Amino acid sequence: MSDDGAVGEERPVLSVRNLVKHFPITEGVLRREVGRVRAVDGISFDVYPGETLGLVGESGCGKSTAALSLLRLEEPTDGEVSYRGESVTDYDSGELKAFRREAQMIFQDPTSSFDPRMPVGQSVAEPLLVHGMADRRRRRGIVENLLERVGLSASDYDRYPHEFSGGQKQRIAIARALVVNPDLVVADEPVSALDVSVQAEILGLLEDVQDEFGLSILFISHDMAVVREVCDRVAVMYLGEIVETGPTVDIFEEPQHPYTRALLASVPSIDPRRRGEGVELSGDVPSPSNPPAGCRFHTRCPEIIQPEGYDFDQQNWRAVMDLRVRLEQGTLDLDAAREFAVAEGEATDPEAVTREELARAVRDEFSIPPELTDHRAERVLQDALSSLVDGEADAARDLLADEFETICEREHPDLRDTEAGHPAACHLHREAVEADAVRSQTPED
Amino acid sequence: MATESGDPERFEDVDWDELGGLAVPRRTLAFVASLVAYALLLGYDYLLVAEDQPTIPVAGWNVTAVDWLFLLTLLAIVFYGVVPLVVNRRLTVHYWHQFRKNRAAVVSLVYLLVIFVVGTVGTAFIEPPQLDTLAAYQPPVYSSVPADVPVSCAGEVVDGRCQGTWAHPFGTTGQGKDILKMVVFGMEVSMQVGLIATFITIVLATAVGTTAAYLGGYVDEVLMRYVDIQLTFPTFFLYLLLVYLFGGSLFLLILIFGLTGWGAIARLVRSEALQRSEEEFVRAAKGAGASTPYVIWRHLVPNVSNTVITAATLLIPSLILAEAALSFLGLGDPTVPSWGRVIADGRGDLSSAWWISTIPGFFLFFTILAFNFLGDALRDALDPRQEGGE
After folding, report:
1. Range of lowest pLDDT (A176-180, B229-233, B380-384)
2. Which of A29, A124, A131, A136 is the best residue to mutate to test the B interface, defined by the most B CB atoms within 10 Å of its own CB?
3. Quick check: is B19 in a domain?
4. Pick among A106, A107, A115 to test the B interface (most B CBs inside 10 A)
5. Tens digit of pLDDT for each residue in A269-314?
6. How many domains does chain B have?
7. What's the pLDDT tens digit per position in B156-215?
8. Residue B54 has pLDDT above 80, yes or no
9. Which among A159, A291, B57, B135 has most CB atoms closer than 10 A?
10. Is B8 a domain residue?
């Protein structure tokens, strides 16, 4: 494996640098590009021999696209993927075919990952056939042996996918990935479609084969509990970017990014000391076709940095930010707020709601308290709300944006080393956060 | 890497560098071999045998262009219809259980098999109907007509009515041709038109539909826009023009039907293939290193076969009907005893000799009906939504 130079330090099996995958949104016959979905927007990581790297994040954050692009099952838009020092992105079709033997993939949905019209044995044997093993009996022998080793029986060769349970199919999927004896396996949510009891079996099998064959695994999951079980290192993804990466223990003990903390809070814990750390994310995941400026997580971040010169209670600051996000999106519905006021018993019909009542209803909707502790901030908010109830949503939006501007929406944070020792991409870890914002970096948009 | 002492070979022992080349399934090999034999025979017929001489002197059979196409169609049906049914017996049994639920379709299948066998094999053993003016207008057996209708009554004349005989069970035409024989030869024509044109259609439609769906982008755009153009093309006038230029011929008719009628099915196949190609097994095959033709042939085509088979069984009757209609209008092949032509021949004698038009009409009607029943039942039996629940 490690041949020249690298003494002591192991060289990565797979190395991904600034991988980008954008899907163009086209219109009309001429396929004019009107926008792009930035599914993966510049991610970098390494997978070392024999290790399991977890790639975690919510659904739709680009994990699966990243996996497909790095295996070139989708052509990456930009960036560099190298396998044992060779550039995968520069492979011609012959080299790519040879690479397919080295790197295999396990898919999420065991039902759709097998051809319903092909006996599963043939599906498992397919990579052998594709790579030139012409002898039917030999293929059959190898596959029957392999099926037994993943916990099925040789006679299952001739059965069809619908005759198996989800867990059995995932065993067969592992067999199909193993049959060409790869060095790297990309497992895309391999257990998320399975019952918890079956999950443990499949994860155990995956671990066994990893130990036996020294596989490197890129393990993609949204389930932090599973990731803690199987991964050596973790990279956390949000909206196409990696926001934190480090050894699993460090990530779970000392998460440095608010998003990681939110993800971890979603894992049920039996440790009483860890109770009450629940973090609830507000708002929806933004669309990757129009990601938020600055830090992509600022629209939902519970720890978003406060604007200079104001002193909010953090929870209230988040609530005000939620109002701002909605105003930016233009999805704030005043009529709904009127209905709400009526439902609260403040007025008899939507038309009769006064300006003050309406402003109060808006505050209620976003859980902003009737009065903020910071008087200057309260004054700004009152002005904005009165513009809003007068129907001047744009004025309200601009006022709030001017007064309550935060570094999180202005500047894009880069991955940098934190006090915990592993890198995270968050302005909280910037030395001069509370000091004047450094404007030397050009804001990203 | 040899397997020793009967131990099964393990995947990690495979020496990948020693492998290589193309692994071709046995069925494909056999099909290619028979195609080569077919091509050799075809070459022999066209290069070495004079046009008016029989290709197979012993049987006295001069193989025509239509016969050659029909042979090719049958070869494909055997290799990609019958053989898979025999090999995947469990799947066949499953489909048969589904199919059997529809009684009308089972009866239709039997009827069509009889028509097919009699039409293809039977015609080799019976003489073509001969012109015989003395035997004109004989009524069918168990029926009678006034004695002055036939030129000379072949059976008994009772009470001034000519009785039908077993010599001509379905009676004869105004030219004295035996209608039973005409019907049997008509079966061959109908089967040839229906099967060959449908074969050409589904090959083209499947190839275009799956390719467009899988490759997408500009390939999809170009292929599907061509299909749009083809669907608006007035095929009937093209056929009229060609009949005017070259005279009516069955070969021409079949080619026109086959080469211009696949657009709608290609669209159906494309939409089905689009769904299928989004599924993970296609990605898995690609991830295993499979080439585009491999994925299309081994994964997409089998998975759109339900759509194709159903569309084909519903296409066959419309083609048979179209051929009969063209023949009825006198635009068909004058040398071929098509049902449509016999119906047209008897049109003027309907008041005196009802059987000439009616009997081929019955066969035409029931054949169309049977294909429609068959298509409906196949659609139900092959419906993927029912799969899995055995």
Report:
1. B380-384
2. A131
3. no
4. A115
5. 666 665 555 667 777 788 888 888 889 898 888 888 888 888 888 8
6. 2
7. 888 888 888 888 889 888 888 889 999 999 999 999 999 999 999 999 999 999 999 999
8. no
9. B135
10. no
For B304, name the nearest residue in chain A, comparing CA atoms only. Answer: A117
A114 chain-B contacts, CB cut-off 8 A: 281, 284
The domain made up of A14-265 is a member of CATH 3.40.1640.10: no
Query: Angle at the Cα of B107 (from B104 to B109), degrees rounded to 5?
Result: 110
Please give the residue of chain B at the shortest CA–CA distance from A183.
B12
Rounded Cα distance, B245 and B250, in Å:
14
A112·B280 Cβ contact <8 A: yes
Rounded Cα gap, residues B176 and B196, in angstroms: 31
Q: Which of A73, A116, A131 sits opposite B16 (nearest CB)?
A: A131
Domain that holds residue B196: 64-129+178-386
Mutation site for A-interface testing, chosen from B7, B9, B11 by largest number of A Cβ within 10 Å = B11
The pLDDT > 70 percentage for chain B reads 95
- Report the pLDDT value the prediction gives residue A186, as an integer from 0 to 100: 95
What is the ipTM for the molecules in this complex? 0.82
> Which of residues B35, B61, B87 is at a domain's end?
B61
C-alpha to C-alpha distance for A335 and A338, rounded to whole angstroms: 5
CB contact under 8 A, B23 and A132: yes
List A45's β-bridge partners, or say none.
A16
In angstroms, what CA-CA distances link A66 with A49, A61, A186, A239, B275? 20, 10, 11, 11, 22
CB pairs under 8 A between A and B: 110
pLDDT less than 70: residues of chain A: 1-9, 269-279, 346, 431-445
**A109 at B interface, C-beta within 8 A:** yes
> Domain of B350: which CATH number?
1.10.3720.10
Residue A221 is inside which H or E element, if any? strand A216-221
